[in-house]
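HOLO CASE FILE
Compound: alpha-L-arabinofuranose
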Amino acid sequence: MTTNPALRLSALALLGLLPGTAALAQSAAPATITVQVNKPVAPVAKNMYGLFFEDINFAADGGLYPELVKNKSFETDDQLIGWKAVRGAAGLESYLISTDRPISNANNHFLRLSVKTAGPDAAFVNEGFRGMGVKAGAEYTFSFYARKGPGNVAGVTVTLEEAGLGRGPETAASGPALAQVKITGLTSEWKKYSVAMKPSATAAKARLKLAVEGTGTLDVDVVSLFPKDTYMNRENGLRPDLVQLLKDMKPGFLRFPGGCIVEGRTLAQRYQWKETIGDVASRRPLVNRWNTEFIHKFTPDYYQSFGLGFFEYFQLSEDIGAEPLPILNVGMACQFNSAELAPITSSAKGPNAAGQGDEPSLETYIQDAIDLIEFANGPASSPWGAKRVAMGHPAPFNMKMIGIGNEQWGPQYLERYEPFAKAVKAKYPNMQIVSSVGPSPDGELFDKATLKMRELKAEFIDEHYYAKPEWFRQHADRYDNYPRTGPKVFAGEYAAQSVAIGSPDNKNSWDCAISEAAFMTGLERNAGVVTMASYAPILAHVDAWQWTPNMIWFDNLTSYGTVNYYVQKLYALNKGTSVLPVTMPANAKNGTDNLFASAVADAPTGDVIVKLVNYATTPRAVKVNLAGAKKVGKSGTAQVMASDDLSTMNTIAEPTRLTPKEEKFAVSGSTVSYTLAPNSFTVLRIPGKK
Ligand code: AHR
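Model generated. Tokens follow.
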């Protein structure tokens, strides 16, 4: 059904169904909006709309990174996270985590199983990430390292099975087997075994059982069940449906790996990119700082396996056509948590008797950044470039931007930021730097940081806005009078919060999304100043999230874009190449009449693209005049998102409840008369005459 009320109403009127309503739509004089087509004011950056990725809400492990086994190497602090013996130890004589002659020093814990009496209960089960999502007929590679100890272990039966209803992994009486393989020929040395498994049915919450055949001792490590179907069929690749949703937005950049995750709750738990590259089996997991952050969503089993590490982030950026934008720790742990600080210079004294005082100084953090640039861009002859090449990417990743610190504030940040930025620029003068101005878009800390960044001639300042939907509508003019010189703004994290920041009741509602659309008219009108923007966070598992709202939600098998996703996508796919000035009717200036607009020209197509938000419960007629236009086509295409109900959301059950609908409209001369639907976001594409 059409979403253009003008068409909808006249269709109903024709049917004689709605005599009064059409009159209502036409009663008010149309609001005249003038777009000055021949006077572009600024270019729109090629990478204006991008992605903010953080491993929050099981976005990486359990999400984008499709390994199905949780804690595959037994290296987490609580080494049996994700694993359970069937019937406790009833079937096994014992099980323990051992370090006796491990696979490697980097991977020095493994599981040792001892069986006295052979039987089906001599088994260990991995629960996956809130279960394992597997598809009928698809191929999964099971692999593990195994070593036989004393006794007569004959092999291992590996079963992918439905979790027995309500019985949990501690019971042998599990659900039906979906796939089963037997591994035999085990030796007394560590050896990797690999075999394909094809489930006979689709299951969203399967589990993996390793049953020991025979009696004796068996050591196992690096247990993996990995789908063959990954994005671009990459080994150690990513979940295709999620990558596709991201790619469909044609993102200009990919910021990674966060977010507060960069900072860690303590400095020891900070994100260290060097720990995330090289052999996947040797990457040591680290606790995820979102694990116990919110009482309402305790996820103590949340770790970062780093299967999705910095190499994979760069590769993902390349695969989806986005500029990579890594953000590095600046020697500060999360200021909402421990706020630990790395010393600015290394202690001349070294560690004291208690072993304190030897923590890495800022120099280490700076060196990490310098090395990262070499890893991304350096030649094979450079030490870090060689590592990238060894991982299979001889060409440079062409990294052009780096973020120094995530969401830091205060003098402690500035003290660290300055030498950091100086050192990066000294070695790589063309590397563009993103600087933080704290977590809020206003207030004393923000003002001071912004001033200082101007003084330091910073290139990009990273502003974050998490606020109620009305804040977004009320601040659509935020940049209209912003200085045109000095740092560019990176709107690095934003999302309307229907209840409050951190509230578990926040919803990805149309009210939030339309308010973001209204705010974004202001970003677009000022694209000469705001050159990058990203909604945050972008991914969340429906059974394992900590933070809401998020742009894309998924379960173990499916995923969907929220209404907010579609707003972002409409902007990204219609970003144009230069900003056109827009004059609103006097009473609608800056959205005061709940009418918001921006316009761009798109040089490759010759189109003029006008974005309009009607945050009102009634239809609104507008007259868009293309002033100074030389050539205008006779009809255009509109993309419309509209809902009478501001609480409308997409969900797993109804993933496309509200998505853009395409319509045609007529152009008369250089004027478009259009009726905006109630509570709507409309993108009009008006072609230059071909
Ligand atoms: O997006 C969630 C969090 O919000 C980010 O990790 C942090 O940068 C901000 O406070």
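CASE NOTES: The mean pLDDT is 92. Residues 83-227 form a domain with the Jelly Rolls fold (CATH 2.60.120.260).
CLOSED: yes
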